[in-house]
Write a structure and sequence with these properties.
Elements (H helix, E strand, L loop, with lengths): L16 E3 L4 E3 L7 H8 L3 E3 L28 H16 L1 H25 L4 H7 L6 H19 L4 H13 L9 H4 L7 H8 L1 H10 L6 H9 L20 H17 L9 H13 L5 H14 L4 E4 L4 E6 L9 E4 L2 E4 L8 E4 L2
Antiparallel strand pairs: 1-2, 1-3, 4-5, 4-8, 5-6, 6-7
The protein binds fe (ii) ion (FE2) (2 copies).
């Protein structure tokens, strides 16, 4: 291929690059490495937004432009405002919930709309937002956004996607009835304290059931988001057919965000650690396998071409995502390929910085 003449080590990509078959090869914003240029060399590729090229169009000359790294992520301001409103909703709950909930939904929905506009970038948009000190409200916001993204990935109708968003922002509202010294306790909880925390599901259901005209699924989401398909969850030990599908999606979004951003007890961990956990729980029969697989496939597709750090402390580039086991991609280490499907002891820890 001759179409990499304009690309050199260190180039910032202003648009996603796709293979001719439509596989995302490199993500917008990537700083090109030599390995990636070599990888592009082996593909017929084109920039996003270009019509699918015929081979001789591939030499089309589109100059990548430099993206400023200092700009706030595009949703930062609207995201911050929505988190502040969620905080008010949570902290003045008795007086404001009935009156304010729709206003907060509207504010949240405009962020979700913006996030969903570019499905390929949706998750990175959410997690590029600068962190808040108020972990609970940011978690509520993120679970709403991630649940909405999963709904879109699963091609659910729009009303279900936005309902998932509402279920997400209110799923942990029952925590407002639990004392902070238990909620924020850094040490291991006693059995009794853990039982108290579990009550946030029932409290949430009680609070939300009293709001007139609220879709009942929002309250059921608060009640059942810690239930697991095999009956090992709480508070009622429901099994698969007793957990509504939307709540099964909510559980996946909840776990994903808890692992990526919860920082009270540990540093936020990477998307790859969250993916491993989701796959493990799906394989154990605790989470909906189809939901986890589609979501993980969607996430991993965005990471093609990215440099990652392995548990062996080696750096590698993600080169291909298999549909059946999307969490076990084909990697390139130097000039060698490593198929993670065949090497179960190796895992991806994080992006390489
Ligand atoms: Fe919860
Ligand atoms: Fe949660």
């Amino acid at each position: 291929m001759e179409n990499n003449n304009d690309l050199h080590k260190g180039t910032f990509l202003a648009a996603n690059i796709y293979s001719k078959k439509g596989i995302l090869l490199l993500k917008k914003g990537t700083v090109l490495t030599q390995v990636q240029i070599d990888m592009l060399d082996k593909h017929d590729w084109f920039y996003e937004g270009e019509p699918l090229p015929s081979v001789d169009r591939l030499s089309v000359d589109i100059q990548p432009t430099i993206i400023s790294e200092n700009d706030d992520p595009p949703i930062q301001q609207a995201y911050d405002q929505a988190v502040t409103s969620i905080k008010k909703l949570f902290t003045n709950i008795q007086s404001s919930l009935k009156n304010k909930v729709n206003a907060v939904f509207n504010q949240f929905s405009s962020v979700l709309e913006e996030v969903l506009e570019d499905e390929d970038q949706a998750i990175s948009l959410i997690y590029d937002v600068k962190h808040h000190d108020e972990v609970t409200y940011q978690h509520s916001m993120n679970v709403g956004l991630v649940a909405g993204v999963i709904g879109k990935v699963l091609k659910l109708p729009e009303d279900q996607i936005f309902l998932l968003g509402k279920m997400g922002i209110l799923h942990d509202i029952g925590k407002t009835k639990i004392k902070n010294d238990i909620l924020k306790k850094p040490e291991r909880l006693s059995d009794e304290e853990y039982e108290t925390i579990k009550l946030h599901t029932r409290y949430g259901y009680e609070i939300l059931s009293e709001i007139p005209n609220l879709n009942p699924m929002v309250a059921i989401g608060a009640l059942a988001h810690h239930e697991r398909l095999d009956g090992t969850g709480y508070p009622d030990g429901r099994t698969a057919d007793e957990i509504p599908f939307l709540v099964q999606i909510l559980a996946v979004a909840d776990i994903y965000d808890a692992i990526c951003t919860e920082r009270d007890y540990h540093e936020g961990r990477s998307s790859f650690v969250a993916i491993e956990q989701l796959v493990k729980e799906a394989e154990m029969g605790r989470l909906n396998q189809a939901v986890v697989k589609e979501f993980v496939h969607y996430l991993m597709k965005q990471y093609v071409g990215r440099n990652v750090l392995l548990n062996s402390q080696k750096n590698a580039v993600i080169t291909f995502i298999p549909y059946e086991q999307p969490h076990r991609p084909l990697l390139k280490i130097g000039s060698e390929f490593l198929d993670l499907k065949k090497v179960p002891t190796v895992s991806i820890q994080d992006f390489a910085h």
